[in-house]
Amino acid sequence: MPEMKLEMQVNGRKVMRLADPGQRLLDFLRDELNLTGTKEGCGAGECGTCSVFVDGKLVKSCLMPVAKAQGAEIQTVEGLAKPGELEAIQKAFHKTGASQCGYCIPGMVMAATSVLREAPEASLDEIKERMGGNICRCTGYSKIIEAVALARDVVTGRASPAVLEPETVGESYIGHNVRRLDAPSKVTGRLKYAGDMVMPDMAHMAVLRSPHAHAEIVSIDTSEAEAMAGVACVITAADVPGTDGFGVFVHDQPVMARGKVRHVGEAVAAVAAEDAATARRALTKIKVEYRDLPGLFDPEDALKPGAPVIHDYAPDNMVKHIPIRKGDIEAGFAAADLILEEAFSTQQVEHAYLEPEAGIAYVDHDDVVTVISPSQNITHHRHMLAGILALPINKVRFIMSPVGGGFGGKEDMIYQGMLALAAMKTHRPVRLVFTREESIAASAKRHPSRVTYRMGLTRDGRITAIRFEMLSDGGAYGMSSEGVMRKAAILSCGPYEIENLWIDTRAVYTNNTPSGAFRTFGGMQAQFATESMMDIAAERLGLDPFEIRRRNMMRAGSLTHTQQRLTSASIDRVLEAAEQASRWEPGAPTMRGPMRGDLGGPGTRAPCTLGARFETPKDSKERVA
Amino acid sequence: MLTFERYEMPATLPEALALWAEAPAGARLVAGATDILPWAREGRAGDVDLPLGIDLSRVAELRGYERHGARVRLGANTVWQDFLDDPRLARWLPVMPYCSVWFADDQIRQQATLAGNLVNASPAADGTPPVLALNGELELCRWAGDHIMCRTMRVEDFVTGPGATRLAPGEIVNSVTLDIAEGYGASFQKAGLRRSLVISVACVAALVKLDETGTRFADVRLALGGVGPVPERLRDIEDRLRGAAVDARLIAEVAEATASRVASRSRVDYRRRVVPGFVRAALEEAADRARVAPSAAERKEAENA
Amino acid sequence: MQRRMRGRGVAASWYGIARTATVDRAGAWAELDDGGTAKVVTGVTEIGEGILTVLAQIAAEELGIRPEDVTIGDNDTARSPEAAHAGATRQTYMIGNSVALACREARARLFAEIAAHWEVDAGALVAFDGELRAQGTNLAMTMAEAVDLCKRRGVVPVGAGHFTAHGTGLNPEDGSGAPWQAYVFGTQVAEVEVDTVTGEVQVLGLWAAHDVGRVINPRGVEGQIEGGVVQGLGQALMEDYQTANGHPVTHGFAKYILPTALDVPEITSILVEDRDPLSPLGAKGIGEPALVPTAPAIINAIHDAVGVRIRSLPATPEKVLAAIAEKQAREAAAAKAAE
């Protein structure tokens, strides 16, 4: 690597380092200066977790070679407020509850600071427009924008600084808007996520991933990589001492591919080295010989006779089938005045938590193999890893680092095993941080679904029978498919009491990216179909959408789809609450939009056309265009 | 991951050109760096180690802009945010702010240069249609042993296909010269899956100048991007409208005919539906804005007052 | 058809709290500490939902101190009791109730000592916000003094608690069973605008009414609803992970499109409290259920606006525009046939 004498002012202090001028400003701040409040979310300028000021202008530090910052004045989130203090914008984030997982928050605070500096009179629309380069996956932005508007009002003197103070408690702390206790650590960038943590003598891991969807591994030759200067170890499936397999339900996934690969991006081998660049270079020296196997890419194909088999234990490629039967489906359809048949589908969805997977493993002084990672289930991960490592369970320890967004995607133990193996092999702390692309290719997705729906109704809108079938692509490994199919089946036909049901949900193996746990665990895919059906039925029967739902809704004493007797059901209350709050104008859903009188009222925003900054607010300086 | 064996920050154009003239194979010029860094990642180029990066951001000659009569010459380091933050540029080049506000986001616009966007010649580049509409011309310079040789080329001729241009070995874009279109109404139409950081499926840039009665097209500039290998000026429509009365039916009629311009290989049906709607909306919006756009004389008066 | 068309749609939903069709359990430890502070140890940490703040509120309420006086550890399988996974909308329900029970045990230890000292019935003691008093008397002290006194009497006020949710497995033949002991319900209304030139859909307003059981932190609940709605919006309109023969095509955030601040509607949350009778707190949950009705509400609203039914998510501009064109062609053909 070339070296250059880099000099700049960082957060008001003069900094001088001999460093690679072509490295990103982001790496320079994080690795050379330990300013880890600036995060890497995507490395491609798409998310804004790395936003910093360079000579007063907000930029994405993952898109700037550090040489461009030579001689510049840099301000990072750590430099906004004095230690122990918060700026108005940070207080506002604290007050409104604008931080959740917190990983986007340093960048958001920087973007908000830029708004307050560049356009202190900005309207709500202009605030959003100027913050359009920063992605948040947790908050839905609402409380963030509220915070920026609150800080704007304080900074411009329109509101008293008192509005930033906490609300006083009444008679109870339950039901009270206690400000988030973790917010100060998030709005200042002080909170350390796993990828921000550094240990003495730490090695850095990189993972070799499969370029094939389905292939036999004929051989792996790691000798050249092992021999490279700076390489601490190379690991493959051969290094696993215990029973290799993990999964939320069925333990069908090896720590690294064993014998064959089942999806593109599956881990095949890993290198721990002095730095991440060396580890990545070493990956190119590992020689893997593959023999291609026929692949399965469509769940329908997986069920066909003679289809390739993905896992030997499941020759029919079925991960899980959940049946639910209630009443007499034939009688129910026979009693119907109207029978609707429809098909629906939903796509695979990425969790897109802004913190890519990361972790550190080490073997402690008592020989306890310890893994620090944003795992959503340390209890189960410890259990599985003890089996994989053939260790007593109290010789394996999981520490849950702050999770920069999970949504179910961090329930799968897809990398902690590799870290543990490398730490055991080297007796050094080993850290792995996924790139965004790696996270997307290797982590589970929301199950895509195909639903065929048959619904029978009487003329007055009462559902007499439902036949519901869902087929889901579980991808290459079981992960949470079993549970997702179960929850999808249980919830499938919605909050309605239906006498006659026939429900089947199935997940099958393919060679696609695995599907797994994702917020709602099958519930949204199934209910998307049901709630679409309810409106289709309402249109056909000339009923208001609320009315048809009321005619079928569960009540106290109802029998659910799984024949559980409910002691209470608040569906009537939430229907009424939504109807009233939205000032819903009743009527059948027959493309009523052009005639409705309830549109555009309180609770709506204006459509975004971009260019909010071109509109000159009164009493403001001239704007361009 | 992008690494450079050598990274140079020349301070003058002769230095930059001399480095570039002698650069080893595989060396790259770095302007805003907002395209090259995302390019060197998995799924695209993967890990890339370049023998040399020549960073142009400190080259003095590429900075700033100056007016030459009815044209403005923008140094190649002019960034997209300048069209939003510099009221004079916004006034001279009324289509640029509307395009700029759709371009990536505020932060990327602080780094991304107009020239870089033109040189990358992405078929989805937002920047090219407005530049075509403003009769953009590039100044291309190279080192000729002991002096600088420059030539000029219309942007329309410069971009030859997706990612392909007529930039010759050893050449650096020195400046972009555009028509000053003060008093024109402008519009930029773009669609996408969301409202920020949008990648174009198709875009339209329009500039309209009305006659003194405000009822006839005195001048029309119209350019289309994202619908074929290269962005194009719709001169036949411009000619048809110039001198004609501003009329919704006429606009709708000329717009309808633009569906046939779509030559993309993907998402053809969608583009064929969207483009006529965009052309119509762009012409109508630009004409509306032209009606309220103050003339240069009025502007001057207001400034002096 | 005008260029911009608006419409509204509604969708209802239901959801179960905690792990599905199984017995769910969690444990926690608590200690009233010097200075009237407290330590609470659980096996779980924040994934962004606000659980640490919720637990601090619960501990503060149960122990009679302030949330900022509560220190929460340890998220560590070697140092803390089992809490199991951070998911399944189980945090407030499972860990929250465990913490409440652990705190009650610690408080009972302390109250027994103070009641003996004051010679009153322990049932007369009330603690809130750092102050302890005996009802019907003028006896009062700070919680800092109370802990000091308790310890001087030789007792460290500690407690442990665990909570069980009694779900049952499903019958493998007919699926019958009681998968959860607590259910929540929700309804959302979406108002959209469809651009008939581009097919773009903007969601302008969204009303979300959710039963969450007893509300612990209203802003926290709103935050969960807002976040869930926007994830639902992303799935309804733009997000689409795609592979070609198993190879990821959407390999980064330039290709995998997420909603930005410009894409979100104004969101009005309405919190409905149908308290859970089977748990000490009466709270249920909101993490996952918030996003269930969003996509169908949006899709139903698109139908209301332009009369097309999108059956396949996401409703991209391309898909919406193609559906509008198909509808117009169908209507034109029908009109022609009618002539």
Automatic annotation (TrEMBL), chain A:
Q: Where are the transmembrane segments?
A: none
- Return the Basic and acidic residues bias intervals: 615-625
> Recorded GO terms, molecular function?
2 iron, 2 sulfur cluster binding; iron ion binding; oxidoreductase activity
Give the signal peptide range: none
Q: Which PROSITE patterns does the record cross-reference, listed alphabetically?
A: 2FE2S_FER_1, 2FE2S_FER_2
Which InterPro entries does this entry report, sorted A to Z? 2Fe-2S-bd (IPR002888), 2Fe-2S-bd_dom_sf (IPR036884), 2Fe-2S_ferredoxin-like_sf (IPR036010), 2Fe-2S_ferredoxin-type (IPR001041), 2Fe2S_fd_BS (IPR006058), Ald_Oxase/Xan_DH_a/b (IPR000674), Ald_Oxase/Xan_DH_a/b_sf (IPR036856), Ald_Oxase/xanthine_DH-like (IPR016208)
Keyword S-adenosyl-L-methionine listed? The answer is no
- Region annotation Disordered: residue ranges? 579-625
Domain named 2Fe-2S ferredoxin-type: residues: 4-80
For this UniProt record, give its keywords in alphabetical order, as a comma-separated list: Iron, Metal-binding, Oxidoreductase
Q: Family assignment? A: Belongs to the xanthine dehydrogenase family.
Instruction: Report what the protein is called.
Output: 2Fe-2S iron-sulfur cluster protein
Q: Which organism is it from?
A: Rhodovulum steppense
Organism lineage reads as: Bacteria, Pseudomonadati, Pseudomonadota, Alphaproteobacteria, Rhodobacterales
Automatic annotation (TrEMBL), chain B:
| Protein name as catalogued | Carbon-monoxide dehydrogenase medium subunit/xanthine dehydrogenase FAD-binding subunit
Say which species the protein is native to: Rhodovulum steppense
GO MF entry, a single one: oxidoreductase activity
Concerning Gene3D superfamilies, the annotation shows: 3.30.465.10, CO dehydrogenase flavoprotein, C-terminal domain (3.30.390.50), Uridine Diphospho-n-acetylenolpyruvylglucosamine Reductase, domain 2 (3.30.43.10)
List residues traversing the bilayer: none
Give a yes or no for keyword Oxidoreductase in this entry. Answer: yes
- Chloroplast among the record's keywords? no
Q: Entry's SMART domains? A: CO_deh_flav_C (SM01092)
Q: Which UniProt keywords are given for this protein, alphabetically ordered?
A: FAD, Flavoprotein, Oxidoreductase
Question: Lineage of the source organism?
Answer: Bacteria, Pseudomonadati, Pseudomonadota, Alphaproteobacteria, Rhodobacterales
Which residue numbers delimit the FAD-binding PCMH-type domain? 1-183
UniProtKB/TrEMBL annotation, chain C:
UniProt domain Aldehyde oxidase/xanthine dehydrogenase second molybdopterin binding: residue ranges: 4-265
**What Gene3D superfamilies does its record include?**
Aldehyde oxidase/xanthine dehydrogenase, molybdopterin binding domain
InterPro entries according to UniProt: Ald_Oxase/xanthine_DH-like, AldOxase/xan_DH_MoCoBD2, AldOxase/xan_DH_Mopterin-bd_sf
Molecular function terms in GO for this entry? iron ion binding; oxidoreductase activity
- The source's superkingdom equals Bacteria
Q: From the Swiss-Prot or TrEMBL record, give the protein name.
A: Purine hydroxylase beta subunit apoprotein
The scientific name of the source species is Rhodovulum steppense
